[in-house]
Amino acid sequence: MKILSIDTSCDETAVAITEGRRVIANVLYSQVLSHKQWGGVVPSIAKRAHEERIGWVIEECCRKAFGSSDEVVGNAMKRIDYIAVTYGPGLAIALEVGIRKAKELAMQYDKKVIPINHMEGHIYSCYVQNSKGNPPRQFEFPSLVLLASGAHTELVLFKDQLTYEVIGQTRDDAAGEAIDKGARMLGFEYPGGPVLERLASEVENRDTFKYPRPMYRSNNLDFSFSGLKTAFLYSTKKMDRDFISKNIKDLASSYQEAIFDLLIKKTSDALETYDVKSVQLGGGVAANRRLRHLMRQLAKKHKVKVFFPSYKYLTGDNAAMIGVAAYFRAQAGKYISASEPLDRVPRLSL
Ligand code: KG4
Ligand code: ZN
To answer: What 8-state DSSP symbol labels residue 307?
Structure first.
């Protein structure tokens, strides 16, 4: 079963062709440079960039999968069984671009559409294999998933294929958003995650400034990062430029440690509450090696397996993960025959 998938939920124009869990072709047009100077993603810029690029990204993906020809998309469509598309959560005007394109293709080539929740895609990112079927990974249920991206921070009980229960979530900012805002306070552009990771590693992730950990001991699995962000803002405002530049690595490291400490504490609480076989990590923040190290330690302590997205491109937004989630949906008969009424749901939850 071959699926062509589209994701335009945020700032990446992403298209993939997958077969089962295997990726045949994956193409991404990243808009990160267009948003950098604004400190975050600007919806109207994202929409325009998606509109300008989506046609080319689809063509390029079809070409990569099946080779060049005059009618590259038309020829690819002869071999494609379904069109999958992200319909939420995400930026409304960005989601619309992908949905419109998916409907167009479905109509023109008579295909069924599989609507996918973007966060479900991040959950399935650990299932994605390369074109040769590696890694072969087998999964057992239930599994605990920590999703940490620029817009979401959630703990999800993954009970069986396509069956989820959100057991904890952020009450304010997402972990990635807190990271990006903290990095901006230190003078770095969007996205802040990779910069903080590098600076922190240069001081071995030590925690010199000991920033507060809101809701650390709350009796639930929810997260809160806004108090930490404010504490960081006030503390850096009191420092002069010279002090900041001399201590930049420690500031980055202490801030990152506070965020990861919260992520790990709540994941640990969840592992104590629920009997699971494995713990999975997904979302942009899952690229971070420090967080992976802490998750590995935690999994070892609780004697559960740990899974990360196996290739770096699978941590950030991409359409391969959407295609793999769609494969499980198609197998369960969860596709729609009439795509016309499909609409974006910007605040879609799992
Ligand atoms: O999943 P994603 O690409 O987009 C959303 O759906 O939000 O996540 C983007 C977030 C950004 O906040 C970015 O700073 C963060 O992921 N991120 C990282 C790293 N790489 C990206 N955070 C920590 N360490 C990284 N290496
Ligand atoms: Zn995402």
So the answer is: E
Q: Which ligand is nearest to the CA of 39?
A: 1
The whole-number pLDDT of residue 34 equals 82
- DSSP letter assigned to residue 61: H
CA dihedral (287, 211, 306, 136) in degrees, to 10, reads 0
The pair phi, psi for residue 134, each rounded to 5°, is -110, 145
CA–CA dist 274, 320 (Å, integer): 30
Q: Please tell me the distance between residue 129's alpha carbon and the centre of ligand 2 in angstroms.
A: 18
Residue to probe by mutation, ligand 1, list 28, 36, 179, 312, most atoms within 8 Å of CB: 179
Q: What's the token pair of residue 206? A: 């030590």
Q: Which amino acid is at 204?
A: E
Given a contact cutoff of 8 angstroms between Cβ atoms, the answer to whether 344 and 87 are in contact is yes
CB 47 within 8 A of CB 97: yes
CA 127 to ligand 2 centroid distance, Å: 16
Instruction: Write the pLDDT tens digit of every residue in 40-53.
Output: 788 999 999 999 99
| Minimal-distance CA residue to ligand 1 atom 16 | 284
Closest CA to 2 of 55, 51, 75, 71: 75
DSSP code for 313: G
Which atom of ligand 1 lies nearest, measured to the CA of 9?
6
The DSSP code sequence of 117-150 is EHHHHHHHGGG-B-TT--S-----SSEEEEEE-S
Nearest ligand for residue 118 CA: 2
Q: 238 Cβ partners below 8 Å, 6+ apart?
A: none
- Within 6 A (CB) of ligand 1 lie 10, 149-151, 176, 179-180, 191-194, 197, 283-285, 287-288, 316-317
CA 75 to centroid of ligand 2, rounded, Å:
30
Task: Quick: pLDDT tens for 329-344.
Answer: 999 999 898 888 999 9
